[in-house]
Amino acid sequence: MRDITLGQFVAGNSVIHKLDPRSKIGMMILYIVMTFLVKRIYFFAIPLAYLIIELILSGISLRYILNALKPIRILLILMFVLNLVFTKGENVWLDLGFWQITGEAVLQSCFMTLRIILLVAGASMLTLTTSPLALTDGLERLLSPLKVFRFPAHELAMMMTIALRFIPTLMDESDKIRSAQMARGADFESGNVFRRVKSMIPILIPLFVSSFRKADELAIAMESRCYHGGEGRTRLHQLRFRLPDLIAILVTLLFVASLIVVLVLF
Amino acid sequence: MIQFQNVTFHYEKSSTPALSEINLEIAQGEFIAIVGHNGSGKSTLAKHINGLLLPTSGSVIVCGYDTKNENDILKIRQQVGMAFQNPDNQLVTTIVEEDVAFGPENLGIASEEIRARVDRALSSVGMTQYAESAVHNLSGGQKQRIAIAGILALRPNILVLDEATAMLDPSGREDLLRTVKRLHDDGMTVIMVTQYMEETVDCDRIVVMNRGRIVCVGTPSEVFRKQDILEKSNLVAPEAVKVRNELKNMGFEIPDDVLTAESLAEAVCLLL
Questions:
Q1: Which chain B positions have a beta carbon within 8 Å of A2's beta carbon?
Q2: What is the pLDDT of residue A12?
Q3: CA–CA separation, B88 vs B99, rounded Å?
Q4: What is the pLDDT of residue B247?
Q5: Interface probe, candidates A158, A222, A224, chain B, greatest B C-beta count within 10 A
Q6: Is the pLDDT of residue A1 over 60?
Q7: Shortest CA distance to A131 belongs to which of A160, A104, A169, A95?
Q8: B241 or A142: which carries more pLDDT confidence?
Q9: Regarding the domain with residue range B2-237, which homologous superfamily does it belong to in the CATH classification?
């Protein structure tokens, strides 16, 4: 939990790791579009192939992808069962009298489940190979054209940066408050769910108050260090769009194009 | 370099002034300690130096710029680096080198130049090997040194430490003081706000504050001699100075520049 600031990020030195976060975000969007374009189950082969190539290039073990899928396993099962029950079809495979399992339903269930699996796996490829800080940077740059419409791209990125910075600090703080309240006789372990949730209040309120104080002090420190908004700011790590980025984007576009061709032909 | 001209400051909703009629001049390269107990106005005074607070009346001139002039505030803040009490609440980003780069980034400096400044700043606080660490894994003293590095990256002429040692353990405090002293030796003007008289023995001048007023200014040996003023301001001279004064009262001859335990021991040895 302590290293939550790194999220799922697995440090590495692969081609994928070194790509500009902006290209990775773009690639992920294209990938998502691909999974939604697919109309028949065997066309999933194209995004799947793309994912496998990315996985091999990044050197990330399959275990991490499976870990990312773990939290949604209930959703996947539910999805499968619901589609199995509610999809109408003619081709009956199994007749239980009150309920018929049709070939179409099985196909539809597999189709929907596979789509979700591919979506989550693809999205986690982005967070596995990109540190949250790089991701924040990339988002800021990608969203900065929206500044024309007064969209606060820099402010949003700065907020994310500060949030990531303070998560461990606030966790330490909440541990301390928890100990302090326990020393005063607070009981966090017994009782039913409602009671236990209610017993969190003596932790949350001091945490809230101290967060405000921290925010105030941080603002003063930032001002002292010449912070005056995003205007005219430069960065230590300049994002650079290089040849590998161009190649990666072109390859992704190639996959999208081939999928579209396949969809049109068949 | 820094001039307080008849500065009075009221916090909103407060009837008594936090600072009244402050006149103080600080020269280039000086090492000044501002001491006082809680609520004496010492931090308020410090926050006037880089325009975080603006005087209600009177003016503060830093390097020729008036802090009241909004257009000059960035120039002033570039000249005056300020470190605060809680090391956790002044670091902005997760990674050490990115935090040190925060100041120069705000000034819009080219990234190669930022790189050079970051490396330089980290090496001058002795934290180069932590450049890529996460700040939350560092100790309090290390965090405070990173905060100082972040300030140095702005290339200031004046360093203000607003009770920067208050939350550190003894070794962290010693570390920080050593770093600050070295910076002063390299020509930095240092203004240190503190409650600990022990930290002030190496200063050029001590400014004693009480209830928003400067009650006494002088070299450490001058100030420590004025027991009555220190007592009235709820301050105590360092242990060694107290022992020295007692010995003097008993009739032993000990010079006035004896301020630390080591020099006291030497002086006593000479008497024996």
A1: 136
A2: 82
A3: 12
A4: 85
A5: A224
A6: no
A7: A160
A8: A142
A9: P-loop containing nucleotide triphosphate hydrolases (3.40.50.300)
Answer yes or no: are the C-beta atoms of B5 and B59 closer than 8 Å: yes
CB contact under 8 A, B101 and A236: yes
How many distinct structural domains can be found in chain A? 2
Nearest CA in chain B to A172: B136
Q: Tell me the residue range of the domain where A215 lies.
A: 145-224
CA A71 to each of CA A2, A4, A84, A125, A226: distance values in angstroms, whole numbers, following the listed order: 20, 16, 22, 16, 43
Question: How do residues A167-202 score in pLDDT, each as one tens digit?
Answer: 888 988 999 999 998 898 888 877 788 888 888 888
Q: How confident is the model at residue A189, as a pLDDT?
A: 79
Length of chain A: 266
Residue B31 has pLDDT above 80, yes or no: yes
Instruction: Tell me the mean pLDDT in the region B76-84.
Output: 92
Name the nearest CA neighbour of A14 among A4, A24, A29.
Answer: A24
Q: Chain A: which residues have CB within 8 Å of chain B?
A: 2, 5, 133, 161-162, 164-165, 168-169, 172, 213-214, 217-218, 220-228, 232-238
Q: Answer whether B30's CB lies under 8 Å from B203's CB.
A: no
Q: Looking at the structure, tell me whether residues A23 and A98 fall in a common domain.
A: yes
Distance of alpha carbon A37 from the chain centroid: 21
Q: Are residues A49 and A171 in the same domain?
A: no
Residues with Cβ within 8 Å of A129's Cβ and at least 6 positions away in sequence, in order, are: A9, A10, A12, A14, A16, A17, A19, A24, A58, A60
**pLDDT tens readout for residues B225-266:** 888 888 888 888 888 888 888 888 888 888 877 778 888 888
Structure tokens at B127: 């934290």
For chains A and B, CB pairs below 8 A equal: 101
